Each structure stands twice: as C-alpha cells, then as structure tokens.
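The records we work with from here on pair a chain with its fold. Each token is a code from a learned vocabulary of local backbone shapes. A record is reproduced here so that you can trace the correspondence yourselves:

_____
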Amino acid sequence: MYPFVIISTTFENKKDGEKIARSLLSEKLIACAQLSSPITSYYRWDGDIASSTEFILTLKTTEALCEQVKARLKEIHPYQLPEIVVQAVIGSSVEYTDWVESEVKK
C-alpha cells in the first residue's frame, strides 16, 4: 500500500483548467493533471437549482503536498467557492507511486 492523493476540481471553461494544471506542474506541486470533456453539473446556488457546463480537473500528488495544493487552488481558482475534493489512493503500483513522488518537490 503506497498512498498518494487525487484532487479534483471543476472549471467553467477549459482554458482555466489548462492554466491551473500547467501552473501546478511548473511549481512541482503535482505529478499529473487530467482535464475531462465537458460535463453538466446540477447544484443549489443562492436558493435556486442551477446547472452549468463544466470541466473536471483531476490532479495527482503526494499526501505530503495535499494541503499545499489545496491552498494554491484556493488562491488561483476563478470560482468564488471552488469544489476541491480529495481522495486518498491506496493500492496503486509501487512503480506508479514512485513516479508520482519523483515528479513533485520534496
């Protein structure tokens, strides 16, 4: 068992997701980012049911850098209240986990 974390967040447009992925990669806070095709999100906002087209950005990093990534996302995310969901990953291959660790700052 070799834990790392996957952090996901959403964006209104692809460009914002790309910009943040590149920023976090250049800062060596993440090893990998994946930006999904558009999805439709449904949610309550200001007492109403709303929907919007969004893109999901999935980030892979170490458990040790999780709080730094979350803090950085809050600083640079264009949403007033960004969704930041963290999932611990246990059970990935040693080789993949080693790669994740080698790609981020220590």
User: Anything to note?
Assistant: The helical segments are 14-26, 66-76, 94-103. The mean pLDDT is 93.
